[in-house]
């Protein structure tokens, strides 16, 4: 009883502490919106975008798909941290043809380390035009459901728990050794870099069903 009360108090304090620290935010400015919008971007979608990136500090352009990428737009999957967090946050609910200017604080971009032409602690500004949306081969939702500890990768334990739950849902009894064979074959196929985990990226790009 005493312990439960203490735990509850600790949880409350943790919430209060978190509320005091402002979360870094992405500023979104819609520059152009098409008249017709059949569909808006959501997590797990694949997005084709043209973009230019600038340093807020001095206006230097560090990348432009119009120039640096042979004029080709680039594909990425929204919401799986394939790109910087600022993009995952700043490119939701976007229509094809829409143009946005997003301002991304360093904490949601390349942070204290910086990267290549981007110095440490840089706030970045992107002009982004959405060219196309496609369904991601696997949904973000199912990945999150399997990723029990939210570390953006699936361990064998997590996949084992998922398989067990799926089998039970469909009324099958679980044969432990069959199960381990299945688990090994899944990891053989999906864990492309063989680090013992299926990352969000590995999960999203492989087309076979789990
Ligand atoms: Ca995990
Ligand atoms: Ca892996």
Keywords:
210 residues, alpha+beta, 6-stranded antiparallel beta sheet, two-stranded antiparallel ribbon, 32% helix, disordered C terminus, binds calcium ion
Give a quick rundown of the structure.
By secondary structure, the protein is of the alpha+beta class.
Descriptive report:
This protein is of the alpha+beta class and 210 residues long. Helices cover 32% and strands 21% of the residues. The protein contains six helices and eight strands; from the N terminus they run αββββαββαβααβα. Strands 1, 2, 3, 4, 5 and 6 form a six-stranded antiparallel β-sheet that branches. Strands 7-8 form a two-stranded antiparallel sheet. A hairpin with a 5-residue loop joins β2 and β3. The protein is elongated. The termini are far apart. The C terminus is likely disordered. Bound molecules: calcium ion (CA) (2 copies). The site of one calcium ion has 7 residues, from β8.
Helicity level, as a percent range?
A: 25-40%
Structural class: alpha+beta
* Mean pLDDT metric: 85
Low-confidence stretches: 206-210
**What's the β-strand tally?**
8
